[in-house]
């Protein structure tokens, strides 16, 4: 029986290198032609192609690798959302589809969104979107050349001799290869604070993911002449705010489980325990963890990321990756894999590591039903940052902080300004990490259309929704998968508009573009967010005492709910703090799962501009729905909150999610 297009796309997502030709795409032996050519099968690229097909154009997506869906399907299942009210359009549809996939229900415009998920579920959702839109996907196509006529791309070719011709192009790769070969201005590394009048760009020696105990970095302790331990740079620390070309660290986002069928940690080929000598000293100094985090995404699985001074981030190993050849990149990826697999093996097996750490690490292992095509290891390295475009508008810290606004918004971002460490070096005789920045933003902010298109003289038919024009620290906030999907969809709408009006993409009518985006439920106005939902594991949650996750009672929001274990009454508290996009009246709602063992007298404090209003809720009833607590006035930002208390409660207290709806 011949394969359907849906089957072929799913096969491609699993790494078979399938080629799927969608409606209207023309192909000969060596030429594929489409209205839109997208380079990069990332979420941003897929959103661009799906939107362009929905608008009636033809589109082809090509990617140098063998994986569809970028990091969203490669282990980053605990989505970095920021304020969920900022996520609109096709991006929000994707997360509603994730919820519907788990619930086994049709997706609707009012379906809940789920932002934590297993990798194979995300892959299935993308497969549905691609199949329904009839999008062409071609894998294993490594970019070789770009041909231009004046300031327009006319075709690109890949190393296997395939030629792609389009009227419009989107570079949705994490590396920015297409824009670079097209002659578009790019930058690498960190600007100094002086470049754009910022405060947290450039070199930053700070306290996050930092050594909390002094560790000697020399081969022979106390003897600089003996050389440095592996992973420690010989460079001198520059003053904070100094520009340099260093790139923040990469890693693999592991999907782990504690289930009995978990896979054991494998000792990788090329394993060298000496790479972890500094970590061993850190442990000997008294550090007991964590060495990686375990954020639950459902199905008893995790999205496990870097956590701490010496963890899964391969600090200093990413610097040459952005501009390297494909062969050198492959070697860098392989080195990251050996480093991270070796780290896990070391923690679980090296007899010098305390037994408590070894047993705690061995209690986790790769999930046996994820990433089977790549040896149960994530199929893609997390390239957090590579090239960045330099266009007529550069997004900066001022945008993130709300101090600068733009008239040509095509999407919102809202995540913390987040950079991972860039180097490990010696400071005052001990090892220090440098580069980690985690500074929150006051609320959603607008992303300029000019930041996703090059200067017109450089290229008039290219859009760049992933490696967009932003300073290093602003990119650290924008570079989240939901935002890439937002900007990918907006790029496709702009490309279609440019074609239908016959103008360079830089000259599309912004008012028309924004009207089209609003019709697609894209959120481009800071005041447009009409709903803010905070899951118990989301941004804006703080806890006191001990709260335990559970999925025992169905009907919860997100991947699970939390409870106080019916103990430590008065000690256990959990607060939901939203980042509201605007001041005004907001209706506050709370969600829990009901059961006879729940407390019927749970005190809940709503903190608003008028003070604190306390409600008592009965969690034995009204479960699995949004229960209104009232409508209150709030200022914009994070001054308001909802606090769940446990004093004198007569059963289990549940914390699932809070919702703020614009009144």
TrEMBL record:
Residues 532-662 form the Golvesin/Xly CBD-like domain. The keyword Metal-binding applies. SUPFAM superfamilies: FAD/NAD(P)-binding domain. Gene3D superfamilies: FAD/NAD(P)-binding domain. InterPro entries: CBD-like_Golvesin-Xly, FAD/NAD-bd_sf, HdrA-like, TAT_signal. PANTHER family: COB--COM HETERODISULFIDE REDUCTASE IRON-SULFUR SUBUNIT A (PTHR43498:SF1), FERREDOXIN:COB-COM HETERODISULFIDE REDUCTASE SUBUNIT A (PTHR43498). Keywords: 4Fe-4S, Iron, Iron-sulfur, Metal-binding, Oxidoreductase. This is FAD-dependent oxidoreductase. The keyword Iron-sulfur applies. It comes from Dactylosporangium maewongense. PROSITE patterns: TAT.
């Amino acid at each position: 029986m011949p394969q359907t297009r849906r089957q072929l796309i799913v096969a491609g997502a699993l790494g078979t290198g399938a080629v799927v030709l969608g409606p209207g795409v023309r192909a000969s032996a060596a030429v594929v032609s489409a209205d839109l050519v997208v380079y990069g099968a990332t979420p941003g690229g897929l959103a661009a192609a799906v939107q362009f097909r929905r608008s009636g154009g033809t589109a082809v997506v090509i990617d140098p690798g063998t994986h569809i869906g970028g990091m969203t399907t490669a282990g980053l299942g605990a989505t970095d959302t920021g304020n969920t009210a900022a996520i609109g359009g096709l991006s929000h549809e994707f997360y509603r589809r994730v919820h519907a996939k788990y619930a086994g229900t049709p997706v609707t415009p009012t379906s809940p969104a789920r932002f934590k998920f297993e990798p194979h579920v995300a892959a299935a959702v993308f497969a549905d979107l691609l199949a329904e839109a009839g999008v062409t996907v071609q894998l294993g196509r490594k970019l070789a050349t770009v041909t231009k006529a004046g300031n327009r791309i006319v075709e690109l070719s890949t190393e296997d001799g395939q030629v792609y011709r389009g009227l419009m192009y989107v570079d949705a790769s994490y590396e920015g290869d297409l824009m670079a070969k097209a002659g578009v201005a790019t930058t690498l590394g960190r600007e100094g604070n002086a470049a754009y009048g910022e405060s947290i760009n450039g070199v930053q020696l700070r306290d996050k993911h930092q050594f909390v105990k002094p560790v000697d970095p020399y081969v022979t302790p106390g003897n600089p002449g003996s050389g440095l331990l592996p992973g420690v740079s010989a460079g001198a620390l520059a003053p904070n705010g100094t520009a340099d070309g260093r790139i923040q660290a990469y890693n693999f986002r592991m999907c782990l489980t504690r289930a009995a069928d978990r896979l054991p940690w494998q000792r990788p080929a090329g394993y060298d325990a000496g790479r972890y000598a500094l970590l061993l000293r850190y442990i000997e100094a008294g550090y007991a963890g964590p060495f990686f985090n375990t954020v639950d995404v459902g199905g008893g699985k995790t999205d496990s990321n870097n956590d701490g001074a010496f963890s899964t981030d391969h600090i200093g190993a990413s610097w040459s990756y952005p501009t390297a050849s494909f062969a050198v990149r492959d070697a860098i990826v392989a080195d990251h894999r050996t480093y991270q697999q070796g780290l896990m093996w070391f923690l679980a097996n090296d007899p010098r590591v305390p037994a408590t750490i070894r047993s705690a690490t061995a209690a986790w292992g790769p999930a046996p039903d994820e990433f089977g095509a790549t040896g149960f290891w994530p199929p893609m390295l997390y390239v957090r940052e590579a090239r960045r475009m330099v266009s007529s508008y550069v997004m900066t810290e001022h945008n993130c902080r709300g101090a600068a606004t733009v008239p040509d918004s095509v999407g919102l971002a809202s995540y913390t300004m987040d950079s991972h460490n860039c180097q490990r070096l010696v400071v005052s005789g001990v090892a220090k990490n440098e580069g980690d920045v985690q500074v929150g933003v006051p609320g959603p902010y607008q992303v300029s259309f000019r930041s996703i298109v090059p200067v017109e003289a450089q290229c008039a038919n290219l859009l760049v929704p992933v490696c967009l024009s932003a300073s290093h620290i602003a990119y650290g906030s924008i570079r989240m998968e939901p935002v890439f999907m937002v900007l990918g969809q907006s790029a496709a709408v702009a490309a279609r508009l440019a074609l239908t009006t016959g103008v360079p993409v830089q000259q599309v009518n912004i008012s028309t573009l924004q009207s089209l985006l609003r019709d697609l439920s894209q959120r481009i106005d800071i005041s447009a967010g009409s709903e803010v939902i905070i899951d118990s594991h989301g941004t804006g949650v703080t806890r006191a005492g001990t709260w335990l996750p559970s999925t025992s009672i169905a009907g919860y929001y997100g991947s699970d709910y939390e409870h106080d274990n019916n103990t430590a009454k008065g000690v256990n508290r959990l607060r939901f703090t939203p980042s509201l996009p605007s001041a005004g009246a907001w209706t506050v709602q709370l969600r829990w799962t009901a059961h006879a063992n729940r407390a019927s007298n749970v005190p809940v404090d709503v903190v608003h501009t008028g003070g604190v209003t306390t409600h008592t809720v009965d969690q034995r009833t009204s479960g699995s729905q949004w229960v209104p607590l009232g409508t209150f006035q709030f200022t914009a930002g994070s001054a308001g909150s909802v606090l769940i208390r446990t004093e004198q409660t007569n059963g289990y207290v549940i914390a699932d999610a809070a919702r703020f709806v614009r009144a």
